[in-house]
Write a structure and sequence with these properties.
alpha/beta; Urease, subunit C, domain 1; 3 domains; 5-stranded mixed β-sheet; 4-stranded parallel β-sheet; globular
């Protein structure tokens, strides 16, 4: 019997609401005790001081940009999976903005074949890989991909590289995707209003002499998108939320019963 005692580790469990510093006893790979202090252990138990460390469920990266395929000089699948495992991630969903983009079933099959290849160097406890399918061919925001084929092939959901500005196309996409039962993730932003801004428009952008991105670039796009969701009834997830006005619009939409969820990025939490 192999056992290990993690002393004074911060235990996080969002499901049960636990957030405490405790001792954790692991026996044959299974957590058998979580107590403030564990004193009675067998003589062959490996004791590890874990002050400053966190123990919790595996993290999930829903929107992972991968260098592979297409930019292996920057990142390979092996290096991506190793970095994810070292960071505590157990599941990764790869975005379709690779080279070539994941906009057809042949590219999906190629990825799945590589993923299951015995020649792929995997870290211990390698994260599970999932794949997002593209909304549009070439990620160009013009023509829909063969969504049903991609769904049948096993994509986890659908998204695109940038915001979709053609609301008629968005409506057709949501109407078509409703029957497929796959998650739909959209980034709402008006590129013309954003106008290449590199930070939020305001006093700071003026002081620094940097082009500003006005909050209305996000909020106006979200308002329009929510009207389309109200018409189609298709569940939608809004990514990269970064303004208080956007949060207000989403809260109002949810209160009205629209099937909308949202998330932000870690960069917007700094």
């Amino acid at each position: 019997m192999n056992s290990k005692l993690l002393q004074q580790v911060r235990v996080l469990d969002p499901v049960s609401g636990i957030d405490q510093v405790a001792d954790v006893l692991i026996t044959d790979g299974v957590i058998t005790a979580v107590e403030t202090h564990i004193k009675e252990i067998s003589g062959d138990t490996v004791v590890q001081d874990c002050q400053g460390h966190i123990l919790g469920p595996g993290l999930v990266d829903l929107y992972s940009h991968s260098g592979a395929p297409g930019h292996e000089q920057r990142e390979t699948w092996s290096s991506l999976l190793a970095a994810a495992a070292n960071g505590g991630f157990t599941r990764l969903a790869i975005l379709p903005d690779t080279k070539p983009p994941l906009d057809n079933s042949a590219v999906l099959a190629q990825r799945q074949e590589l993923q299951n290849s015995p020649y792929l160097s995997l870290p211990p406890c390698s994260p599970q890989l999932y794949h997002w399918g593209a909304f549009t061919i070439g990620l160009e925001g013009q023509q829909m991909t063969e969504l049903a084929e991609l769904a049948l092939g096993g994509v986890v959901g659908f998204t695109d590289e940038g915001p979709l500005c053609n609301l008629a196309l968005v409506r057709r996409l949501l109407e078509y995707l409703q029957s497929l039962g796959k998650p739909v993730a959209l980034w709402a932003c008006d590129p013309k209003l954003a106008n290449g801004g590199v930070m939020r428009e305001g006093i700071q952008s003026i002081a620094l002499g940097l082009p500003g991105n006005p909050a209305i670039a996000e909020s106006s796009a979200i308002a329009a998108l929510l009207e389309v969701v109200a018409t189609t009834g298709t569940p939608v997830h809004l990514m990269r939320i970064s303004t208080s006005r956007a949060v207000q619009l989403i809260e109002s939409a949810k209160a009205a019963g629209l099937p909308v969820t949202a998330s932000t990025t870690w960069m917007h939490l700094l």
